[in-house]
Amino acid sequence: MENDFNIDSAPAIPSSSLHYEPRQEGEEPLSSDDDQRVYLVPFRWWKEAQDSSSSEIKRGIPYAASPAPPYGGPMKIFNNIFNSDIAFNLRKEDELMSNGVNGEVGVSSRDYALVPGETWLQTLKWHSDSKSSSKEKKGFPAVEEDMSDVYPLQLRLSVLRETNVLAVKISKKLRVWDFSGQTTLLFLNDKNKILKESQKQTEQDGEIASSFGELLKKLWAPGATPLAPRTFKMKLAHFAPQFSGFNQHDSQELLAFLLDGLHEDLNRVKCKPYVEAKDSDDRPDEEVADEYWRNHLARNDSIIVDVCQGQYRSTLVCPLCKKVSVTFDPFMYLSLPLPSTSTRTMTLTVVKSDGSTKPSPFTVTVPKNGKLEDLTQALSTACSLAVDETLLLAEIYNNRIIRFLEEPTDSLSLIRDNDQLIAYRLPKDAEEAPLFVFMHQIEEHSLGGKLTPSWRAFGVPLVVRKSMANGSDIHEVYAKLVAPFLVPGEDSLDNNDGSDNTATEEIMDTDDACLTRLSGSPETSDKEEPNAQSATEFQFYLTNEKGTEKGSEIGMGELVKPTPNPERLYVLVSWSANMANRYDVKPLSSLPEVFKSGFFMKRPQESVSLYKCLEAFLKEEPLGPDDMWYCPVCKKHCQASKKLDLWRLPEILVIHLKRFSYSRFLKNKLETYVDFPTHDLDLSSYIAKKGGQSSHRYILYAISNHYGSMGGGHYTAFVHHGGDQWYDFDDSHVSPVSEDKIKTSAAYVLFYRRVEDA
Q: What are the two backbone dihedrals, phi and then psi, of residue 81, each rounded to the nearest 5 degrees?
């Protein structure tokens, strides 16, 4: 079982507090004097206050964060489908232990510290006093860098008694240095203490099994009426607070917690022996798998294991030395992805950075569950991208770029249908040059006739990647970028009689005139003051990425001043009203959405077989950049390829269909129709272990359905009971349902039982 830190976040303070309360049932909570609350704070925020005092800095224990393994690994963290937090493991960083706090630690903005409550209060007071006395100063750069990316985190820390791994469900990847000493309570290395704590748990965790047993008795009692399981829910919420309250909860998450709790309550092993996992070392898979299974049963022996647990093989291959690592892990259920069988049409606007053409929309077809690299490839083909060009994608909102899309492996689900995307065609040979982003604003005079004009942002930003040393370069480049929008024949400065010239010639002539005007030729009247703004001129200012700040004007001969981010420079261009009349800015201002559906248009429902879902789950794929594997041969972390295979199957097979997807920007439910077998689910061709098990065939006996969306919905169940009769369980209503009605796009969790071969 696990020990938990209870959550008590501290709003408006750059930390989160964690409260650890291990106690027996009936034991009084800790008093305020014995409060073991600790706070997660930026390392440098804490250390700066410590360095200023004469007190000795306590030696910290470093932990490195890595993604938590799936169920069946050492940690058991069940993520709520309505929560986008990520599960991590914290392991002691032995190589950093010798450095202590005086080594190269705390230099990263991802370094955090766990400190006692008293230390947190003292540190907070020190910063408050320092800030009050330094209002006129610039501030604390190191502190501001940390605090700008810190907000109250929602954390859950837990550890299994028999492991030396601390699991944390957290919204950031970070390194934690423990200066509180509280995490040592979770790493129980003393065998006597392990036994003592295990005995305490045995006395309490049996309550889940007892409460569930009482519920089953009431449900199966003769003449029973509909039952509201309030008592069971209260007992469940006592051990798992995430199931308290009346909000919608995930049925699969509830099932996972219940099965795990029942297993621990009914575990026949009272004193779990220490078992060290061994590498396969090129031994036969059968030998290694049996060894892993014996080790698992030595610590986990219950009816839940007997009936509900299977085993899969995990194979990792190093891309460099081709080292193969094979492990075998237990599973309680299979969580299968829903591969998309359909495509998605997406419309983007392509803009050239040389000012040769106006923006052009392109519509491409990509896999619905594809990645950004799929979109980039399709768009490159559609716009005939040259070999010496590259595309830079960005999302536009309110006439500014709110994000660049630069990670090829990002899911296209991050892009919504009503987003507005733009793709800039840039030269490859200028990838090392800074990126200049030009944003536009136009002069507007109020109806009241006030002399001071107001400014309004318009159009999409124009982008160029080029080294520009002074204002003349910036003026010239921008003039070329907006040249395609000039209205032919409207510029009197080109001395064009309009007799035989083509539209292209007129645009080039007016472009030359615009360049002449911007470079300060005698076209302007001698009577004008040298610094006065002509009614037909642009003005350029360095600004921030939102275009809300206007710095000093960039003059023709002025050098470009350095900015905090020299790789990207944002320039705000002010248009006079007269200048705007010389350009057709409609193509610059009209940007199509990614997908615009008709009012009555309805997309066809997707359909995929359960076998395709299983194949997607078992396919080989590279590990993500945040889930690198340490190769024992190369002695470094690498992005290994991973392949899962089913090895042994349980009597009761639970299949979870992953309908809920969430990311930083989007939460979504997949309404894909999954065609699953009801009478003959045959998994023989998916079992890596040959022989040794009589049957790999299953029959369906229950379905958990979810209707609705991410934020709310309704659960029902279809259950097979007696003969060929299925029943629909909908709250307190139970009614027969025909078998041909049980397959719907609401199916969420499938329950199968093994049947012997005839």
A: -70, -15
Nearest Cα residue to 272 out of 308, 306, 297: 297
Give the integer Cα–Cα distance in Å for 140 and 117. 23
Residue located via tokens 């710095």:
551
Question: What kind and span of H or E run contains 295?
Answer: helix 285-299
Both structure tokens of 463: 């982008």
DSSP annotation string for 136-147: TS---HHHHHHH
Q: pLDDT tens digit string along 402-441?
A: 999 999 988 888 898 889 999 999 999 888 888 999 999 9
User: How far apart, in whole angstroms, are the C-alpha atoms of residue 317 and residue 640?
Assistant: 5
Q: What is the pLDDT of residues 615-665, one digit of tens each?
A: 999 999 888 777 888 898 999 898 899 999 999 999 999 999 999 876 555
Distance of alpha carbon 297 from its chain centroid, rounded? Answer: 35
CA distance 713 to 362: 38
Q: Do residues 458 and 398 make contact, with C-beta atoms less than 8 angstroms apart?
A: no
Cβ atoms of residues 459 and 399 within 8 Å: yes
Locus of tokens 């492991």: 163
Three-state secondary structure call for residue 706? strand
Report residue 208 as tokens: 């889940």
CA distance 491 to 523: 12
Cα–Cα dist 510/493, whole Å:
7
The Cα 438–Cα 421 span in angstroms is: 17
Cα–Cα distances (Å) from 279 to 312, 324, 526, 532, 689, in that order, read 16, 10, 86, 78, 19
Give me the helix-helix angle, 230-239 and 251-265, nearest 10°: 80
Using CA atoms, how far residue 146 sits from 103, 129, 252, 389, in Å, is 19, 19, 37, 37
Q: Are 179 and 106 in contact (CB under 8 A)?
A: no
pTM: 0.52
Contacts of 748 (CB under 8 A, 6+ apart): 251, 252, 656, 657, 659, 703, 704, 705, 706
Instruction: Please report which residue ranges of 159-282 form alpha helices under DSSP H.
Output: 191-220, 230-239, 251-265
- Partners of 747 in the β-ladder: 705
Residue indicated by tokens 């900015």: 563
Which two structure tokens, joined as six digits, stand for 216? 């089953």
